[in-house]
Design goal:
homodimer, alpha/beta, Alpha/beta knot, Helicase, Ruva Protein, domain 3, 2 domains, 7-stranded parallel sheet, 11 helices, 7 strands
């Protein structure tokens, strides 16, 4: 499938594909498009529709996909759930009402490792989602090996279709993402905390100036005041640049003070 | 806030409130409504808008909220970010571009425990989200103590606004949800695996009938055939009822077989 298609390497976020997403009798093209976007956000590429009410492709759907054309263009449409899952080995049914069935119930987080290990063993997986208003029928749920259900506010647990797809795609991606690479990519410029020796020099500079101006009095309170000030600046996790900025601020304020006294 | 309002106990999914969600200059009322729904799905009640382009309340927004009226009706609108965060103690900025800043970057999953521990200590938290098209400005991001960023497909990481809100609300809820209560609520009827003694009786019944009809021949292959059949039925994790069903099936097939021979 697209997920392992070597002609589109820049879309393959993992060295193997994720689950196929199968929307059963979806109603709104717009929701299908939002599902495409949610899938591509999380590196899923294989979307299948069973009897969509709005024909596909569809302009509202493409607009709602916000540029996830690689998913939009690869969508496959089927007449029945049986045909849509025919080439898969393991199928999950996403439903908010697991009680109706006697199948095994997993959360998306619990199921995520299974999607990865299955793909690595060459076992193709998929997840069925029901129509917006009613969810999957019992006949659809029986097509699945197990149920996926999301722990949500019991008083308001009906998810928007694209949110349900997002949730499962997100858990899949989070389980497989290379967090070291992500940290590398998102690490902010020079955000590492300064060396302690530079921080201690800052403290000594500040305390020298505060002694000079008489702030650290009376002497019996000095140790506690120094401790509290050091704790306050420690907590700020100052970077190298920020330590230099603070020393400049102290020098600046001291000069102004001296000028004021002249 | 609403999250701890004793007049609406059935909406309070946790004994304490979650983070306020602050949408900065959101454009579409529909997106705001979808945020309301995503929040209530995950037990968040406190939504704040700063300079929404579409006026609020707004009919498209209410429709998109799909019944999350408790959130829709409690929305507060502010002129500036400063006013929207004034009564909060700790603020995060959700952004896809953490490199622009030198603030600490956490994933929603990493930040979730902080929301819970803060609330339990009486520290009020909030999360800023930027407008659909552009995200938060640098001036907005500087209002925050830390950045929230979601590890996503690097080639397609722009989330729909409601998906971004969902992601953070979901991680908050998952970290606090009482999974024992959830299991209790979702446990499927009689789905527990049968006792091994009943399964062994089923195996013995089946193997007796298979010996009688000559299926388990030649004798030197019998042990392996029996093992493979037992493994197959073990894997199905049969329930009590299913063991009885299987025994009925064996009896039924045997009777038919006998009738066929008469």
């Amino acid at each position: 499938m697209a997920g392992t298609d070597s002609t589109q390497p820049h879309w393959a976020t993992m060295p193997y594909g994720g689950p196929a997403i199968i929307l059963v009798r979806p109603q709104l093209g717009e929701n299908i498009g939002m599902c495409c976007r949610a899938m591509l956000n999380n590196g899923l590429l294989d979307l299948r529709l069973v009897e969509p009410r709005d024909p596909w492709p569809n302009e509202k759907g493409r607009a709602a996909a916000s540029g996830a054309d690689i998913v939009v263009d690869a969508v496959q449409v089927f007449d029945t759930v049986s045909e849509a899952v025919a080439d898969l080995n393991r199928v999950f049914a996403a439903t908010a009402r697991p009680r109706d069935s006697s199948q095994i119930v997993l959360t998306p987080r619990e199921a995520a490792p299974t999607f990865h290990s299955s793909a690595q063993e060459g076992i193709k997986t998929g997840v069925l989602f029901g129509p917006e208003a009613k969810g999957l029928s019992n006949d659809d749920v029986v097509m699945a090996d197990a149920i996926l259900a999301v722990p949500l506010n019991p008083a308001f647990k009906s998810l928007n279709l694209a949110q349900a797809v997002f949730c499962i795609a997100y858990e899949w991606y989070q389980t497989g993402v290379d967090m070291d690479a992500w940290r590398e990519e998102t690490s902010t410029r020079g955000a590492a905390p300064a060396l302690k020796k530079d921080l201690i020099h800052l403290f000594e500079h500040l305390e020298q100036e505060l002694d000079d101006c008489g702030f650290l009095r009376p002497p019996e309170k000095r140790p506690t005041m120094v401790q509290n000030i050091r704790i306050m600046f420690q907590r700020a996790q100052l970077t190298d640049q920020e330590v230099r900025t603070m020393r400049g601020i102290i020098s600046g304020l001291t000069r102004k003070h001296l000028r004021g006294r002249r």
